[in-house]
## 1
Amino acid sequence: MSNSIKHLAVIMDGNGRWAKSKGMARVKGHEKGAEVVREITTFCSNHKEIETLTLYAFSTENWKRPKLEVDFLMKLLNRYLKKELDTYNKNGVKFETIGDLAPFSKQLKETITKTKEATKDNSKLTQVLALNYGAQDEIVRAVNSLIDKNREITIDTLSNALDTPYKDIDLLIRTSGEIRLSNFLLWQVAYSEFYFTNTLWPDFNSSELSAILENFNLRERKYGSI
Ligand code: FPP
């Protein structure tokens, strides 16, 4: 049996614990985590089936972290996007985001817009970063936009009003041993397969992802039928 995998989503968790276990500052875990983002994105861009990779990079709740850590994450993201542009283009990766970008700095918003514009014609993989993203917030914004337009609320109209391109997720992976969704893509995981690994995100790599994809291939997906 082989399942088709078009949309992979990942909750990248465990950066802080990884750094702590090595006696380093939490932010070092985020730095190493960014390198893993690069490796996994490259792997997915070379995978013949995966069309979309959605990564939970910053949640609506992450603002509660110490200001120093939030500032570091913002700078890291800005640096990452600038540095990554050539690799995005070399690997055919189109960059997109989900979430409400309004609270981000002008500088980061500009980098995001430029990266989207410069990669918009790439077609091997769409990398979607969830930034200031929360699924409940996404659903509420979508319902309100339908109400504003006086549209009927159905599964189709609501699905189409959400932020997420290529909505249905085939497989959702969470690293670091936590078994919860943390407000990520609640609507889009209706029929997803889930995989929880104890590996901390900075230790995750493409060979573990390959093994997870093999496990996914053995799953029987029934979508409610028998
Ligand atoms: C969870 O680890 C990770 C985050 C909240 C941020 C994710 C960010 C990255 C992977 C690096 C930067 C991303 C890009 C796209 C350049 P945690 O800090 O909650 O870890 P903990 O649970 O061990 O404390």
## 2
Amino acid sequence: MSKMLYEGKAKKIFSTEKPNEIIVYYKDDATALNGLKKGTIVDKGIMNNTITSFFFELLGKNGIPHHQIRKISDREALCKKVAIIPMEVVTRNIVAGGLAKKMGVEEGYVLKRPLVEFYYKNDELGDPMINADYAEAFGFATDDQVDCMKGYALKINDILKEFLLARKLQLIDFKLEFGVDEEGKVILADEITPDTSRLWDLDTGEKLDKDRFRRDLGGVEEAYREVIRRITDQ
Ligand code: TMP
């Protein structure tokens, strides 16, 4: 009998008969502004399961270890159980969103090199920005684990940037989460979707990600569908 272990904003996690495997269930719920704005994006769960499965397979083929075993239904993926490191790892190529506000620069400023940032995963505190010293001092992750996450984040950035560019999508920024598996290795977990990344059309600059929901731009479902169409060449 499978039981729900955890319910997050966009996904539910269920147990399986195997203690080291879980099922991730993708919901249509959408939140923004740290949970203040709530809504639904029709079929988002189905689309995000498809997109994450696609990216994880691509990354796996390129040597990035991740938690996903296989997609098992429209909304479900079978995954390895990991201990999630309570840090969000954000990688940025072009300034947008929070960074544009913080640094007082226009969205679209091209960074001289990719920027990797760490945030402490804590909704009540609004996910404060931290660094490697905080991670080690508060016991979230060791220095080696932080180096490992940063290394993977930059490699994932290279792989995804090139793949997406060939499909006329610009990878502006994205958020990753990592976990520690039963062998003690740091592996990629969570999701990679338009909920957790910014993707702009290369020619028009049109936003094809959750900013359409965050900023009430309309055409949210169409944008997610367009991402699927481009990455799967459908
Ligand atoms: P930001 O510009 O709001 O800091 O977001 C940077 C990237 O991280 C963007 O692609 C959205 C993603 N992100 C999440 O997935 N979850 C979050 O809680 C936040 C703040 C950002």
